[in-house]
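sorry to bug you again but im stuck and you know this stuff better than me. what follows is a protein written twice so to speak, once as letters and once as structure tokens for the fold. id like you to explain what the token line says about the fold, in plain words if possible. anything you notice is useful, everything is just below.
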Amino acid sequence: MVSTKLCIGLLLLAGIFYGCSAGNNSYYELPSEFRQPEKRLEFVKDYYPYIAGKKIFIDPGHGGTERGNKGFESFEAEANVNLKVSLYLRGYLKESGAIVFMSRTTDTTVDLKQRSVMADSIGADIFVSIHHNAPASADNIWTDYTSTYYHSKEGNYNYEPCERDLARFVQRDLAYAVRNSGGLGSFDGTYSDYAIYPGDGFSVLRETKIPAILVECVFSTDHFEAGRLGEDEFNRIEAWGIFKGLCKYFRNGIPEIIPLSKIDTLAAGDQSFNFMFKDSSGIDFNSIKFQFDSTDANVTSIDNSAGRLSAEIYNVAPGIHSLKVVVANKNGNHSFPFRKKVVVIPNE
């Protein structure tokens, strides 16, 4: 016969494993910063120098007539949960000194392309689109993981490694906050949007010129997620995970690319381009990628101590050309997109 003390012990142990119950057979864990307010204040204080003044554009997916996923057993529409998480994220960012813009703050319809136009036109630093996922089959109520998407894929001219850097930071902290894996389709939980739409990707990532990511926090169609997605506290946890990832991303620094010679209008013929790279952590000169019309240029000299690079382009013909430069710092973060239109005029 099992003793009373043993039964009580087993019940207590079960309570420890389940943490904070959110009902409907689901649970969530409170981050240490939620359980100990002094840790939350300490985190904001420590990261304030890195996030303050940054311009963040938050895009709550769907809204208005676009409801998104219905969720398990017709639970609250994805559009509403996206907005709640986004508003909590806005609060955390503003508390840390960031300048925040949003594609919507109420349940309204916003055109997909307009979301990108808004973000680019106000000069935001980064674009973060908030979503909750669903599988292809309506009968699938078991699939659940956390994923973060970036545009294009390595090897393509329109691929920007800074977007994958950003996705990795957000994915790591969000997945840990909600206690989800990143799924089996990716080693670290980040995915190219070409995995969903080959060669095309998501509109909000393809059309946005600034660094952009799309976050699928959890699967709202999973039978365990419905309970906790309906809890404001869990929505705050989702937002906190994204917030921490953004803070850590900016702490790692963004290399700055500074042209030292005229590049907008040039004469036909051989051309020399000179750049300076700046970052407090130092520059990884092995990471430099210099492309002219999607072709690697001939890098003629690199001055590590001064952070300078010179590259030559031979026999440049009249017309409109494109110039792209990418570099990483010693923390592994890549530069923001540096693409310039170069107008080459005939020699007189």
Observations:
- The domain at 23-251 is CATH 3.40.630.40 (Aminopeptidase).
